[in-house]
Amino acid sequence: MNCFGVKFRVTTFGESHGNAIGCIIDGVPSGLEIDESYIQNEVDKRKPGLTKFATQRKESDKTQILSGVFNGLSTGVPIALVIFNENQKSNDYENIKSLFRPSHADFTYFKKYTIRDYRGGGRSSARETAARVAAGAIAKKLLEKFNIYVKSGVFAIGGIEAENLDFEYANTSEIFALDKTKEDQQKEAILRVKKLGDSIGGCVFVKVANAPAGLGEPLYNKLDAALAAALMGINGVKAVEIGEGVNVSRLRGSQNNDQMDENSFLSNHAGGILGGISTGEDINLKVHFKPTPSIFLEQQTQNEQNESVKFNLKGRHDPCIAIRGSIVANAMVSLVLADMLLLNASSTLENLQKIYGK
Amino acid sequence: MNCFGVKFRVTTFGESHGNAIGCIIDGVPSGLEIDESYIQNEVDKRKPGLTKFATQRKESDKTQILSGVFNGLSTGVPIALVIFNENQKSNDYENIKSLFRPSHADFTYFKKYTIRDYRGGGRSSARETAARVAAGAIAKKLLEKFNIYVKSGVFAIGGIEAENLDFEYANTSEIFALDKTKEDQQKEAILRVKKLGDSIGGCVFVKVANAPAGLGEPLYNKLDAALAAALMGINGVKAVEIGEGVNVSRLRGSQNNDQMDENSFLSNHAGGILGGISTGEDINLKVHFKPTPSIFLEQQTQNEQNESVKFNLKGRHDPCIAIRGSIVANAMVSLVLADMLLLNASSTLENLQKIYGK
Amino acid sequence: MNCFGVKFRVTTFGESHGNAIGCIIDGVPSGLEIDESYIQNEVDKRKPGLTKFATQRKESDKTQILSGVFNGLSTGVPIALVIFNENQKSNDYENIKSLFRPSHADFTYFKKYTIRDYRGGGRSSARETAARVAAGAIAKKLLEKFNIYVKSGVFAIGGIEAENLDFEYANTSEIFALDKTKEDQQKEAILRVKKLGDSIGGCVFVKVANAPAGLGEPLYNKLDAALAAALMGINGVKAVEIGEGVNVSRLRGSQNNDQMDENSFLSNHAGGILGGISTGEDINLKVHFKPTPSIFLEQQTQNEQNESVKFNLKGRHDPCIAIRGSIVANAMVSLVLADMLLLNASSTLENLQKIYGK
Amino acid sequence: MNCFGVKFRVTTFGESHGNAIGCIIDGVPSGLEIDESYIQNEVDKRKPGLTKFATQRKESDKTQILSGVFNGLSTGVPIALVIFNENQKSNDYENIKSLFRPSHADFTYFKKYTIRDYRGGGRSSARETAARVAAGAIAKKLLEKFNIYVKSGVFAIGGIEAENLDFEYANTSEIFALDKTKEDQQKEAILRVKKLGDSIGGCVFVKVANAPAGLGEPLYNKLDAALAAALMGINGVKAVEIGEGVNVSRLRGSQNNDQMDENSFLSNHAGGILGGISTGEDINLKVHFKPTPSIFLEQQTQNEQNESVKFNLKGRHDPCIAIRGSIVANAMVSLVLADMLLLNASSTLENLQKIYGK
Fold first, then answer.
1. Size of interface C-D (CB pairs under 8 A)
2. Helix intervals (H) in D209-305
């Protein structure tokens, strides 16, 4: 089950310390300009080792296209992308190879498969998300053809929340902060916990602009359901909100309803989705990332022999996964939207007549 | 795309005011006792018309088994269930047939399909969820064979939150309240808005007890991703939280990590899921339902001719969809767990050897 | 796994002697005229009890639409169809309830599920194919919008082969014979074996006219692969041929290649499919049905207690399943083509631009 | 749609003259010994350039494992395999870049995608099948754990048919001939047409030994349907037969039925499958390959500008694709069986109880 999407379908492979990670993207329509540098540019955004706010693992994350592109255009056949791992320090994991790091997937992978690649978390490592970002770049390219833009940034760090959302600014910020006026506080919060050997949680905001009304395959591949799955499936995410989000459970209908005039909606509590289908308004999403489980404080845990052990972690880790997570969230949302765009193509007889004539 | 699940797969059909609603459940292992009255019992929990906290539409919701059960046991072939509609009052919808009720799916279905069954919201009506509850009953039956129990109840209404979670009590409460000491306040909040012609939001808690460690198909049919999709896809849900939920984005790793001793986890911030796989701890979920969009206050909206119109709703509606939504959430979680149980059966060579011998 | 198709997806349910059989058809584009009498007309073609060449079981096969159609048009939501069983004579099966009829699925269902509905073969009965024909009627309706016609008839009975293919004539023939000049011989062959208590095999020809070039999702949902699965999955089918079929293994490239001039192909050995994609030429298929396994001669078999037993069958059976099988084959091919038509809608960026503008 | 299988799922990528071909195999249970040399051994069987009966293209077909294997064992996560292309002679295709080779997929890919990688047929090249063989090697490894063996060989060339099937011998034959006494005639037939610049068709036999009864997911992922799709989807295949195959349409029930005694079936006309489920007998399949469309005789065709042109092919081509096709057919059958083995694991409550306890 290492794939997602129905028509625009991505299958990924790879472990943190294996030979390579990568993906196959199936269902890309033919005729799309695929620019290797454009993909690289997206991948580079989540590349490790760039700032003091991210892990110091150094990877060039050089992304190669193995198939599916000819003379600069997609041909309709699968596009395979590969990123070879370069900076594995597997020795960092020798001392924890038989124990389960708290709040990591070590324990659950072991329970499920009885065997596990303990090096860097193996498949459960966030390193795998580089493949998602690479695939997401192609989705974004497709969406842009239809003027659809997926924007994202860091909304909150440790409870310090943005008040204004400036997605342009986020692109230039070391921590992808949405609100310049909060950025310093947010950075400080990160560095404070980092110094303590601790980590911190954060919240990411994703906005889709210009998605046409009508996207989403109701019951049960609804747009909101698909987005929730795509986002909750990112490493460390524990909550997903759409539009008003958790706040809806406190509101009255008269407060939450989005009335309309002849032109448009007068508010957007719905976050751009009604009945699982896009309304044409902005799609607004909040994604809550837990603090990195890899901390440098002594912790107690269990090992494979069912003994209680105390241990101190080594290795290189992000103090706040929400930061690079914002790039991954952007990619996942892009992939969902691209899939919905394709799926919707056959929703009406009229659409089919546009393609096949009458 | 009206199906969900991979091996334990449910496909539903039906509209609010059509002839019938129902479902086909595929992948039920042979040999499971299927008791029509047990299914009916689950369906009756979300039946309309029972209390003043629910819509006054009267439906017997008599659920018939059309196939797949022989001599009281599942035979491994598809189980079809059907519920004929009885109490359609389609005339209630004549005055709104060409306009889009605010925060309903009227607008988006029209945009997607250009044609729509406007009677009671057609397919987008919560009436369809009766089919999910019927299917969920079979999932629950399967789970109980393995001592897995899915429990649910109303956690909050309009911000009035439970402090203790008593799932036994919830079963007996008219509003499925989890906390008896908050129930009166919660009821009062509902009746207050109801009297005003308004509605109110609520939050549902779902707990899975005794799920074995190892369930979930990581990347990308993770347990958390699948649960998020299943829950976000319920009518009116705008946020899903697992374990600490939105709160994780405020915590430090040292606060949020679940350490272990030789026996078990020492806390459960993770809500029973790590790396998309169950840990063996309770799975804890919060689901936020928006206030019913159907309110009886005058509202402004658009019609199919792109004109701005004011209108007053008629019809019979729940003042708080979270109440009956708690039954639907329970069913959806049960369906996800059943699917994961089946999918996991082939996760190791050892499992296969237990079945096929060596 | 009781569904097929990706976008135009059919899920069926029901057993020979259960309450009902039926299906859910998902993915029908909105705006298609759905005429109940048109569906009934297709279903009636394979209805039992009409001639001496078919089983004498009497079923009205009245097909009801339960959902998905409003004001005579598909609305884009699932269309559920149900046919209640009426003429079950389950007593006919009492004497064989614990034995495995030779060349029936009794043995394999028992091995797979350990439990089985022995009445009339349960789910493995060809009765289930009525649901496929009902679904196929909707597919045909869609295809006709694009001038695509799926035609079929009986090509051979017991080795007596048609020399001319007249699909118009086949529609009027009691045995759906394609060649009027062979019909009497073919009928005679059937009646001869019937009198002996035996049965006979047959071959069905299906032709798709006017399918546009470009249908088929190569690697691995090729048009030919999907057709082969759809046809081989019909009860009693043991071989599927496309174009030259088995004969290709005897030919040279210079004999089998289809050259072209500026207008079209100069021959059609390929049977309308190259590389898994339609060429625009007629799609030609041959489907080989085994003789009905239900014969009235004494046979030896095994029972559930692993004893060898001799037995004589009772019940009502077709002497030649290819006859009604030709209607089922037609439906299955129609369903595949409808799915491919929908899937292909997003194959090029140009197609998407026709739908979404820009 | 470049994947097949449900639980044991393979997704392939790559074109004849692109950078690489390869695949991701998802769903391999953890704990299986994965031996790179074992995979290579299978891949080498269909490697080009080995004999005068195959194309002279020289490829080492070195297969690398990129993920999913740790310490020699599968870990349950996706196994990615890659084969870099080495001996592309794209210049061979310059003169045909704008024309459609007769009976090739050039025309249909162009019609579907409007763009195509004309070099060596791009994605439609049989070169892609190396990835299937690599994936098939892992499936075979799994099957062997359960004593299931998939055997294959060349049954007929140009109508010269084997009379005895010796699968051991086939492994040692340059043309994988099943019958040593026919091998010389078959070779001669190939060399005769090769000398003329022509090609020849052939028929491959695949036998599965020791498949347990109960495999196959009836309606509609039947074992026979899945095998038919897998085999018909191989380049150049135009007919698939199971058991008696096309011959069934000539037989009577009394001739074709497989009676049983207390131990087993007394015959195997069914070819090991009844009702879409394995019987436990040998599964017997015949696969008919057309003659290679690439011949060196002058042919007439159309070009992209819709003109009629005559042309003479260059390049390196197999005179008979059935030979290497027998290895591909073997792989495809192995993949289907592995998938069915996994899918069947949850078919009964009893199976689940073996895994999860009671």
1. 385
2. 223-232, 253-256
- Sign for the pseudo-dihedral over CA of D342, D348, D353, D354: negative
Angstrom distances, CA of residue B308 to CA of A277, B42, B293, B296: 22, 42, 18, 18
Q: How many CB atoms lie within 10 A of CB D64?
A: 17
ipTM value > 0.95: yes
Q: Where are the domains of chain C?
A: 3-356
**Cβ atoms within 10 A of the Cβ of B72, count?**
10
Residues of A in contact with C146 (CB under 8 A): 352, 356-358
| Domain A3-356, CATH homologous superfamily name and number | Chorismate synthase AroC (3.60.150.10)
- Using a CB–CB cutoff of 8 Å, tell me whether B220 touches chain D: no
Show the low-confidence residues of chain D (pLDDT under 70): 90, 358
Least confident of A57-61, A204-208, B214-218: A57-61
How many CB atoms are closer than 10 A to CB D149?
Answer: 16
> D39 Cβ partners below 8 Å, 6+ apart?
D63, D65, D81, D134, D137, D138
Q: Which residues of B touch C94 (CB under 8 A)?
A: none
Q: What is the mean pLDDT of residues C236-263?
A: 97
Alpha carbons D334 and D329: distance in angstroms, whole number: 9
Residue pairs spanning B and D at CB distance below 8 A: 92
pLDDT in tens, C18-77: 999 999 999 999 999 998 999 999 999 988 778 888 887 788 899 999 999 999 999 999
Q: For residue A7, what are the CA distances in angstroms to A339, B152, B247?
A: 6, 35, 35
Cis peptide before D118 (omega within 30 of 0): no
Smallest Cβ–Cβ distance between B75 and the set C11, C12, C115 belongs to: C115
Which one, of C295, C317, C352, lies nearest residue C53 by Cα? C317
Among B256, B281, B278, B254, CA closest to B269: B256
| 3-state DSSP assignment of residue C265 | strand
How does residue B120 score in pLDDT terms, banded at 50, 70 and 90? confident
Tokens standing for residue C239? 């071989």
Specify whether the CB–CB gap between A266 and B300 falls below 8 A. yes
Residues B130-147: b if buried by 16+ CB within 10 A, e if exposed: bbbbbbbbbbbbbbebbe
User: How much is the pLDDT for C358?
Assistant: 67
D41-54 per-position pLDDT tens digit: 999 998 877 888 88
The minimal CB distance from C73 to the residues B2, B22, B115 is found for B115
Residue C272 token pair:
């309308």
Q: How many helices (H) and strands (E) does chain D have?
A: 9, 16
For residue D300, what are its two tokens?
A: 């007439």
